[in-house]
């Protein structure tokens, strides 16, 4: 693969810079077809698009998790990148705190892990096993595992996709709070247009492997009943080829 990967370090630079990114799994057609994208430090970007338009492929490229894929282009990301997936990927044979601090160095690792668990509302669950946590709690632990590494870039692929509606709403509030505190740049892949508008500073819609729509969310009120919210939702659903209900 001819990808020219680099590391961004200075704060004047964008946190993520992607230029002319191509990715393909077959000889017949590309999934990403010359994609350009910048994400500023601390900026929260939601990535939406029809099924199969390459959202996860882009996220995996940024995470350095590309497999079975050919391509070229330039990708620049910060040193500290964390990834959260739809399933928590906690190791079942390790207690929650040990999962959170897995691979961390330093005498204060346990202390930092416990602090991260407290931040996501899991104080007191350090010695629990993953199976003793609900799905939502497991995703909280997964967020703690990411944040304890103090990422400059947080990549999240449908992190709330498997959760019930009420837990999702709670997780939205938690993620927003955590991002306001830690200020990583965020790329969140989601199928949920409302989730994108509630959470993000910018919503990017992928189509045919390039950026089709790039809108800044400037709503003072992110409530679904707000007319600006409804207008933005209609615009995005329209671009997705869906008629708003
Ligand atoms: N490992 C792979 N091998 C072969 N094809 C793949 C592989 N991973 C993804 N693809 C194909 O690449 C295309 C884009 O997949 P990707 O998972 O990036 O889409 P997506 O936009 O995230 O889709 P969804 O919204 O359904 O999750 C799809 O056509 C998919 O079948």
TrEMBL record:
InterPro entries in alphabetical order: AAA+_ATPase, ABC_transporter-like_ATP-bd, ABC_transporter-like_CS, ABC_transporter_ATP-bind, P-loop_NTPase
Domain ABC transporter: 16-233
GO MF annotations, alphabetized: ATP binding; ATP hydrolysis activity
Pfam families given in the database record: ABC_tran
PROSITE patterns reported in the protein's UniProt record: ABC_TRANSPORTER_1, ABC_TRANSPORTER_2
Keyword annotations: ATP-binding, Cell membrane, Membrane, Nucleotide-binding, Translocase, Transport
Xref: PANTHER family: ALIPHATIC SULFONATES IMPORT ATP-BINDING PROTEIN SSUB, TAURINE IMPORT ATP-BINDING PROTEIN-RELATED
Protein name: Sulfonate ABC transporter ATP-binding protein
Organism annotation: Actinoplanes utahensis
């Amino acid at each position: 693969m001819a990808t020219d990967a680099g590391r961004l370090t200075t704060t004047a630079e964008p946190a993520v810079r992607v230029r002319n990114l191509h990715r393909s799994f077959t000889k017949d057609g590309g999934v990403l077809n010359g994609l350009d994208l910048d994400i500023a430090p601390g900026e929260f970007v939601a990535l939406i698009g029809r099924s199969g338009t390459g959202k996860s492929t882009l996220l995996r490229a940024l995470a350095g998790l590309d497999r079975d894929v050919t391509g070229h282009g330039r990708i620049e990301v910060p040193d500290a990148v964390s990834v959260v997936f739809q399933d928590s990927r906690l190791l079942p044979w390790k207690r929650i705190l040990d999962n959170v601090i897995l691979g961390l160095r330093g005498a204060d690792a346990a202390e930092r892990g416990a602090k991260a668990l407290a931040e996501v509302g899991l104080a007191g669950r350090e010695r629990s096993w993953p199976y003793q946590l609900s799905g939502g709690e497991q995703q909280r632990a997964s967020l703690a595992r990411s944040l304890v590494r103090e990422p400059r870039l947080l990549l999240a692929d449908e992190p709330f996709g498997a959760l019930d509606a009420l837990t999702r709403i709670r997780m939205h509030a938690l993620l927003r709070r955590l991002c306001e505190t830690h200020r990583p740049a965020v790329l969140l892949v989601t199928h949920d247009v409302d989730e994108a508008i509630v959470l993000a500073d910018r919503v990017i819609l992928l189509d045919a492997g390039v950026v089709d729509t790039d809108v800044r969310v400037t709503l003072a009120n992110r409530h679904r009943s707000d007319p600006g919210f409804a207008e933005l939702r209609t615009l995005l659903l329209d671009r997705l080829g869906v008629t708003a209900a």
